[in-house]
Automatic annotation (TrEMBL):
Name used for this protein in its record: Probable 5-dehydro-4-deoxyglucarate dehydratase
One Pfam family cited in the UniProt record for this chain: DHDPS
Annotated organism of origin: Streptomyces xiangluensis
Keyword field: Lyase
Keyword Lyase: yes
Amino acid sequence: MTSAPLAARLNIPSGPLFFPVTAYGPDGAVDLDVYRAHVRRGVEAGAAAVFACCGTGEFHALTPEEFQDCVRAAVEETAGRVPVIAGAGYGTALAVRYAKLAEEAGADGLLAMPPYLVVAGQEGLLRHYTELARATSLEVIVYQRDNAVFTPETVVSLARTEGIIGFKDGVGDLDLMQRIVSAVRAEVPGEFLYFNGLPTAELTGLAYRGIGITLYSSAVFCFAPELALAFHKALNSGDDTTANRLLDGFYRPFVELRAQGRGYAVSLVKAGVRLRGLDVGEVRPPLHEPSDDHIKQLAQLVERGEALLQEDK
């Protein structure tokens, strides 16, 4: 765990936010050595933070013991250079358990994912995340997606809750997000962080920038950090020419390929890491591997993206 406040460290857009995949060996067990190498490469490439065992890291597929081992490995590999945020999810009791395991492993914060299965009302959601925030000393980012969608009034209450420092959007409703940002700005003093958490968030980066949201998760950084870094620099410097060239030539085609299979937001990314020379294994069920043709198309897309970067030189 690092000593500086998490919110302050995350609010400096020094690089993409890195969501490493979880590595498995040939026997299907977690391969901590390969996972460490993956995390280390990401930090050395310029990641601003490591979000361990979250969506891209197959949180859903990990046992509590595997989860804690991976979080601890990420903390050790980052060695305080960047913050480590761990996933937490399921029902309240299990989310609290994962939060405590992350705290014991030295994490700096939590990404609180939606509760399992149930579609809860706003009152129940608020209680769930409030109890999670109170369970440990770790600061919490609430992840809006799937069955956890919030009204502006509920987000105002979350922002007033001690220990909750940010809100990650995985829904993509810009009207709702603008109303959330406006309501919190008007009613809660101090700074509250917002993140674009859509799959391949770069595709909507320009739109989210328009409502003041520049922090985002980058799955592409897992397997093509040079492309993710170039886009991040362009987005934050206002170089829309470069951003649009990367959107048109790489990110839009990548998103269209990702849409060809369920679960490809994870399995296609993991295939990309393997293509770039690090054998992180396959995804665990119920996810499935991309087809050979889709992996071939991914390799061609990465080559095209690399060529786009050469145009700037």
